[in-house]
Write a structure and sequence with these properties.
Length: 434
């Protein structure tokens, strides 16, 4: 079998066989097929798409490209969650300690930034010393001891996704339904949790811009999970503007910590409650959503979720003092406002462009080898529907480089539309697939 023929077949709109899919997944994982051929195949898949059968085969081939974790040594129903990627999406940072503080063991595998979106591992590395490079034994031990562990993909766990994820990130091949579904579900299946809750975003800051595509992606992933014997559900939410106010690694960590102290932005709290309810119900800790929401709010009120975050950070080598004193997190040298050029109401935000502003400031990767700057990013002052006066700050940009700051400011201003009338309110939670 030749990689050239597989690329050609997909380029011409053909359906790949199981043998062909397994051939390229295994060959790429072992380093026998080069990046440039797989990049070409990803682009062919991007344009020609994959059938449901191809997507399922790709998912299983990627999950089986390394070890499949066996978590039976952890007591209780282990729950994992995963987002399809958004801007300002710090959900795992607040949600996982909330759920663990309620008593559901969270065994989660996370990724790094992708395209214009950030990744949980990069964000967590804002805690000095923090690592997600855990052995399976440490992972299981931490979930048993403190109820939560987050690991990155090691060479042994879904290594095919690790390589494809990094490649897609820099070849403009992220936003394809089959590639997203297989990437997420291969990791989730390999990581061994009993229940999976998917956080599917739709809108200008999501990979699935159209609501119907987001629902189709959610349904496809839920089906893959169920076929593999995992209790899987999905919450579809709006990503037409950043989640909360902070975008950028350490800045998002601060917002997540504030949320655990009871000072969270309304949309972010709502999403944590919607996803958390699914996790508590799946974990058998609540019978229905209303009961779950009460439990989740209680662990914010009594500080146990915040303390759980500190215990989790400590267990993974991080400086837990930063949970209680965020001045210990990385800080940018320059903080400057971007001001509104007119009076009016914010009617629209090109949310992916806000993610790109954070990338320009240094918060994301340009190439697979790029180092990211954990301190930079932006904090919005105005979101959709807010009134603004000419000269008032729309956001504060946090930068370590004046040239990048100037570029990001210019791009930021183009991302905001300000009009004279109040825009219509949009539904934030669009639906749940159970
Ligand atoms: N998250 C992932 O893990 N993979 C994707 O392709 C998109 C979001």
């Amino acid at each position: 079998m030749r990689m050239y023929d597989i690329i050609m077949k997909k380029r011409n709109g053909g359906e790949l066989s199981e043998e062909e899919i397994r051939f390229f997944v295994q060959g790429y994982t072992k380093g026998e097929i080069p990046d440039y051929q797989v990049s070409a195949l990803m682009m062919a898949i991007y344009f020609q798409k994959m059938t449901e059968a191809e997507t399922c085969t790709l998912t299983m081939a990627m999950a089986e490209s390394g070890d499949l974790l066996e978590l039976s040594a952890i007591k209780g129903v282990k729950v994992d969650k995963h987002s399809t990627g958004g801007v300002g999406d710090k959900t795992s940072l607040a949600l996982t300690p909330m759920v663990a503080a309620c008593g559901v063991p969270v065994a989660k595998m996370s990724g790094r930034g992708l395209g214009h979106t950030g990744g949980t591992i990069d964000k967590l590395e804002s805690f000095p010393g923090f690592t997600t490079a855990l052995t399976t034994e440490q992972f299981i031990h931490n979930v048993n001891e403190i109820g939560i562990a987050i690991m990155g993909q090691t060479a042994d766990l879904a290594p095919a996704d690790k390589k494809l994820y990094a490649l897609r990130d820099v070849t403009a091949t992220v936003d394809n339904m089959s590639l997203i579904a297989s990437s997420i579900m291969s990791k989730k299946l390999a990581a061994g949790a009993d229940a999976i809750v998917l956080d599917v975003k739709t809108g200008s800051g999501a990979f699935m811009k159209a609501e119907e595509d987001a629902f189709a992606l959610a349904k496809e992933m839920v089906k893959i999970g169920k076929n593999a014997g995992r209790n899987t559900s999905a919450v579809i939410s709006d990503m037409n503007q950043p989640l909360g106010y902070a975008v950028g690694n350490a800045l998002e960590v601060i917002e997540a910590i504030e949320t655990l102290k009871g000072n969270g932005p309304a949309d972010f709290v709502e999403l944590c409650l919607a996803l958390g309810s699914r996790m508590l119900v799946a974990g058998g800790l609540a019978k229905e959503d209303a009961e779950a929401r009460e439990k989740l709010l209680a662990v914010i009120k009594d500080n146990s979720a915040l303390d759980k975050l500190a215990a989790f950070v400590r267990a993974q080598g991080g400086d837990e003092r930063a949970v209680y004193d965020t001045s210990l997190l990385p800080k940018a040298s320059v903080v400057e406002p971007v001001v509104s050029p007119v009076d009016g109401y914010v009617s629209h935000i090109a949310c992916d462009e806000i993610g790109v502003c954070s990338l320009i400031l240094g918060g994301g990767r340009e190439t697979k080898e790029s180092e990211i700057d954990l301190a930079v990013g932006l904090v919005l002052e105005k979101k959709v529907g807010d009134a603004v006066k000419k000269g008032e700050p729309l956001a504060y940009l946090h930068a370590n480089d004046r040239e990048k700051l100037a570029q990001a400011k210019e791009r930021f201003l183009k991302a905001y539309a300000i009009e004279s009338t109040v825009p219509e309110e949009r539904l934030f939670i669009k639906g749940v697939i159970r």
